[in-house]
Amino acid sequence: MAKEKTSQFKKRNLTAEHVACVERFEPDPGPEPGTSEHTQAEFDAMVEALLLEYQPQELWVFAYGSLIWNPEFEVVESRSATAYGWHRSFCLKLTRWRGTRELPALMLALDRGGSCNGLAYRLPAQDHFKQLGLLMFREIDANPPTNVPRWISVKTESGVVRALAFVAARDGMADAGKLPMEKVAHVLARAAGHWGSSAQYLFRTVTMLKEYGIRDRNMWRIQSLVAQEIEESLSAAKKT
Is 146 inside any structural domain? Predict the structure, then answer.
């Protein structure tokens, strides 16, 4: 039986067809009660604090999730990179964007422990303040935030660079903690918000990881479990 399950696991991959079956868009419910939107002054203060902590000659950003497939900034150079002491984890709970109050989503962040393979992007040399401000606006939505900016060291083929990354604050309101893969898959196969489905987010991420030759065993298992969840839900719906 164990061998049979393993064989089935290896054959199943999340596809665009799976995603199309669950893709939908929900109204934006706005900020979670107890949180608010950041003001421009607050974003500016975050950038000022980051540049007081470290003022780079070259601005590098470490991408491990959606920044790989949708960076939304100009990239001068990219390198394969590894962040040691951090791992890619679906540990952020979202009640908007790709989830709702009734059916929260999960989003990737860097959590402590292990290692994470991704990409290091070098941004243009000019106006680091403005570029960091755009990153804050894109990556941080809740106030107070759970997905927080942090300078980390990442190893590339050309040496170690200091890069900005977004990591999970374990005391944050949106911290989901360490969840079993089966629970993560159950959520990702069902949740959606005004930016679309969580399955789409996962599919785009694993597709680009594969394109860049980045292996992440946990992500590959989760995408297979999500495909299985969607297939089983569709099969059950046909029987009713």
Answer: yes
Range of the domain at 53: 32-238
Predicted local confidence at residue 11, as pLDDT: 59
Q: Which residue has the tokens 């920044």?
A: 67
User: Residue 174's domain is classified under what CATH number?
Assistant: 3.10.490.10
Distance separating alpha carbons of residues 185 and 218, to the nearest angstrom: 11
Alpha helices in the chain (DSSP H): 2-11, 16-22, 40-53, 66-69, 128-139, 181-188, 198-211, 217-239
> Looking at residue 98, what DSSP letter applies?
S
Residue 158, token pair as written in the block: 């050309």
Nearest to 117 by CA among 92, 87, 139: 87
Residue 3 lies in a domain: no
Residue 27 is assigned to a structural domain of this protein = no
pTM for this one?
A: 0.91
Answer yes or no: 139 catalytic. Answer: yes
**Six token digits for residue 237:** 């719906």
pLDDT score, position 87: 97
156-200 residue pLDDT tens: 999 999 999 999 999 999 999 999 999 999 999 999 999 999 999
Q: Which one of the listed residues 32, 139, 182, 231 is annotated catalytic?
A: 139
Q: Looking at the 3D structure of the chain, how many domains does it have?
A: 1
- Output the average pLDDT for the chain: 93
Distances (CA, A) of 146 to 1, 26, 58, 100, 139: 41, 23, 26, 17, 10
| Position 2 pLDDT exceeds 70 | no
Residue 26 lies in a domain: no
